[in-house]
Batch of 3 targets.
Target 1
Amino acid sequence: MMRTSASPYTFILGAMGLIPFLCATYLSWTNQTFFDRSGLYLFITYGAIILSFLSGTLWGQFVHRESSPLSIYLLISSNVVAVAAWFSLLLDIQVLSIALLFLGFISTFWGEARFARQNHSENSPYLTMRFVLTLIVCVLHLLVFYPSY
């Protein structure tokens, strides 16, 4: 069964995870750098790391479940998303990197929500938190994407 509990630590760490996205967005919009790296570069690299982390959490959910068509799909998709996150770092066109990461964040949430629905835990506080965090991250992707496009 998928863990649906959300401790205060989960909420705090989730919220703190937004700070680098917010800072990188600010740097991107103001054309400033941090350690000689552009805000766009920082946004993309941090996004790839977080997306890989989220893919790992999907993998972890598979490990603790009995095999089913959905759980196998979750396992395979978590690997595809992790490789896509890595691939986003290799692209020379930053706008494509942002778009790929944006789709990856939506995909991981969609997979997790679908998995929660199967386990009748779609109204869990954890999934609500994940929705809000994913929504904020996706809006920040659009804000970073906009001036680049």
Target 2
Amino acid sequence: MAAALDQKKSLVWIRVLSVAIPVAVAVLLGLPTKLDLGDWVYTLPHIIGAVNTLTAICLLVAFVAVKKKLIDAHKRFNSLAFILGAIFLVLYVLYHASAVSTPFGGEGIVRPIYYFLLISHIVLSIGVVPLVLLAFYYALNGMIDKHKKIVKYTFPIWFYVSVTGVTVYLMISPYYTH
């Protein structure tokens, strides 16, 4: 009975966080006045790009590890990817709450490619939050069958979000003015 109640509470928290995180990010991004945190925030896009790169690498290593039945390595690299995701979120919010968005200056065919990648990245980054939280919840609680079912969707989406984050960063980085 207690285990079922704990599971129900955990699933409620996952739902709450899955809504609260994107809403909080949207609110902070839409602040009418940017926070004055100093010029150091203009280094954040480069750090965020590195964090996304490391996240993609960790996810790929975790995937290879689980295929080779190296479960401890799989756990470590997925945990590191999760931590990097949290770091990304904090840095992303700090940057966008304090710096004006950089317009993309590319022209021609690269422009619709950039916006396709950006929009798909944003939409999937919102959708992957509950999947990642559930995948970790199932793994941490020994619900491996449920974990395996959900990561069939979670891994490719999270990996795509990480890789497109890096790609979008590389495409827009020439237009940063600081």
Target 3
Amino acid sequence: MQLLVLKNIGTHGIHSQAVIAERLLIDAPAVSRLVDRLEEDGLVARRAGENRRCVRLEITDAGRQEIHALERAAEWVDVQARTYLTPPEVEELSRLLDKLQTGLCQLLGTEPAAPPRNDNG
């Protein structure tokens, strides 16, 4: 879950714990504990928001490096998976995963995440 919180802050630009809680369907205290751990690890910093009750979450350089490492790992997994599937099978798998994501998002009343950028074709 910490990685999902980090990704929402660093990749999706979400800076509010309340929005993260809503997006990940977890309660606010759970998000606060996750952010505490990310802050302890030096991946996220809490900054003053618009008012005293509001805290703005910012990703640190270490957090950006962590996200970059995760993206590289995901790309590696993608390349490895493609060695076992033909191009039509990859297209079918992608279509089915998109369909599943859309259905689950409709069920939960949320919008699907933007598809990852694929520079490899």
